[in-house]
Amino acid sequence: MAKILILGAGVMGTAISFPLTDNGHIVHLVGTHLDGDIISKLQAGYPHPGLRLKVAESLKPYTHDKLAEAIEGVDLVVLGVNSHGIEWVAQALSSVLSPEIPILAVTKGLAGDGEKLSILPDVLRAGLPVKYQKDVQIAAIGGPSIAQELAARRHTCVVFTGTNQALLDKLAGLLRTNYYHVWTSTDMIGVEVCVALKNVYALAVGLVIGFLEKEGKAANGADMHNLAAAIFAQGMQETAYLVEKMGGKSHSVYSLPGTGDLYVTCQGGRNSRMGRLLGLDMLYSQAKAEYMPNDTIEGASLALAIGETVEAMVKRGDLDGEALPLLRTMIAIVCDDAPANIPWDKFFANAAKEFR
Amino acid sequence: MAKILILGAGVMGTAISFPLTDNGHIVHLVGTHLDGDIISKLQAGYPHPGLRLKVAESLKPYTHDKLAEAIEGVDLVVLGVNSHGIEWVAQALSSVLSPEIPILAVTKGLAGDGEKLSILPDVLRAGLPVKYQKDVQIAAIGGPSIAQELAARRHTCVVFTGTNQALLDKLAGLLRTNYYHVWTSTDMIGVEVCVALKNVYALAVGLVIGFLEKEGKAANGADMHNLAAAIFAQGMQETAYLVEKMGGKSHSVYSLPGTGDLYVTCQGGRNSRMGRLLGLDMLYSQAKAEYMPNDTIEGASLALAIGETVEAMVKRGDLDGEALPLLRTMIAIVCDDAPANIPWDKFFANAAKEFR
């Protein structure tokens, strides 16, 4: 039996508590400064509002100001915040974390500093006090995992990734159940690049929902699945390019972190909802302000986080712009309010090169 | 302007006529011995029953007994039959084909002879008279292409594959339109293995439709997308293994032929319908006989075509059985009426090996 702190009481952070409490571990769930309402509800014994399920009775919910108390004696910290919360988390943990407590991050994203792209575990590490940076062990979770399904104990397959195989085996042992199937991978770059990029490519696949709504079904009843599938494939191909470029393995691309996670993300959610609005010819800034002002749209967040850096890297020749036409189109749509036009001529260009 | 014969008047064979006639080519559409009704309808000016659209007025429909007349002077033969028709086609063409006429096959499948697996273009070649086998050029089409959408002139992205780049460029030039986007690839093995296997893996993803119907939504409304995505990813991973094993390139896996075509095939169709029945605990032989006696289910056809050979190759050590748990499960379901159980312990085993 272990004692585990989960930081972030949104749907994903809280869903992770289900395999943990099912395995008999003690779980302390600490909300962020934005999770006050959720923690109040859980403390009063109500279901989690996003998961629509009660957490285990053994779980202890804490507000963020009680972090120091909640973290006492824990064996593991799980990060369940979204990509915007990672800097807050680094700061919050700085005064209370011991370097021997490993961190398991559910958060997905990439960061750009104008010069290069970084995976989120590295951003987190850089945000911690210098004395921890070398010693703290950070692992991460990737793979297709809709939180509501995990919390309902429906079969979910994920990969735990990190550089220390012994730690990964230990973490997998803590969380594995007969519905939460955990594999491990030391290809941290590959996994993290895949799971971050899937959000922006799911946003791209979502465009087709809007295109179809705008044009309607064809006279013979035909939809636009061919187009959605082509965008899906272009997304995977660009993911493979960036994974390789950043030093990851292509194997992560055609397994759970890449193709599995993009598939599940295209089944609905906020990226798809925003994609639809963009496909209906709405500009990003307008769609965000009018229809989704309070939602975090991870695909758009990623475009904003790395857009400038990607373009700078293309300009310097560090990235091949021809290999990333869809990513660059999505960056233009989100960062510059460009219209949602598919760059047909530029698609699969890299494929043609590689194929020959 | 070229003169082109399409052999097979089903939905896919006929759909290919749309970009061809839009480009001003003369198209002769020859039905197989099973397409008599369709050809009669087209000759009478009615819409194609499966596509629910009229073909171009310039298109000439022929019954199969008129093949010798229809093939006279053509520059290209397009094969639009399904995998069961390939031997019939080889025989039918044997007496009328000139070896300088190239063949472009839409047909997808693999064959097993107990010893090894072969891609369909090689099966076709072997079925032609010996005097043609060396000289006739065979190319093929792969990628996400629902026939009804192509015929409705909705954006469709495909790869033409073959060993002769000049021929591929010429064929792409004949068929390319502003809605039919054609790339080329000389990785014929990779493309053909991907587009054949996608049928059996779409059948596997389809199981989840039945699982969900059987168990219903969870108390919190959760579906089973995580499970479907994991099966999708396992399918892609096994595809990558077989592509590499047969001498193809992994690049085809994470592009249009692999991930794109599997994605579109999971959006519905006969593989999904059969998958649902199997997921509802019906045995394959019963489901086929009672509910889909007259349907070709390509995923099941593939399992039947290669099942024995795959198992023999695993037994001999020519294939790693641990790398193909899902394919072998689907073979057991289709060939031996095994129940539809997911082999969780065996999933992603190869990934773990490769990742480390």
From TrEMBL, chains A, B:
Catalytic machinery residues: 198
| Binding, substrate | 108, 270-271
Q: Which SUPFAM superfamilies match?
A: 6-phosphogluconate dehydrogenase C-terminal domain-like, NAD(P)-binding Rossmann-fold domains
- Family membership noted in the UniProt record: Belongs to the NAD-dependent glycerol-3-phosphate dehydrogenase family.
Report the EC code(s) recorded for this entry. 1.1.1.94
Q: Which domain of life is it from?
A: Bacteria
The entry's cellular-component GO terms read: cytosol
GO annotation terms (biological process): carbohydrate metabolic process; glycerol-3-phosphate catabolic process; phospholipid biosynthetic process
The entry's protein name is: Glycerol-3-phosphate dehydrogenase
Catalysed reactions, as listed in the record: sn-glycerol 3-phosphate + NADP(+) = dihydroxyacetone phosphate + NADPH + H(+)
Which residues are involved in binding NAD(+)? 8-13, 147, 270
UniProt domain Glycerol-3-phosphate dehydrogenase NAD-dependent N-terminal: residue ranges = 3-166
Keywords (alphabetical) are: Lipid biosynthesis, Lipid metabolism, NAD, Oxidoreductase, Phospholipid biosynthesis, Phospholipid metabolism
* Gene Ontology MF annotations: glycerol-3-phosphate dehydrogenase [NAD(P)+] activity; NAD binding
Native source organism of the sequence: Brasilonema sennae CENA114
Please state every residue range assigned to the domain named Glycerol-3-phosphate dehydrogenase NAD-dependent C-terminal: 187-339
* EC category name: oxidoreductase
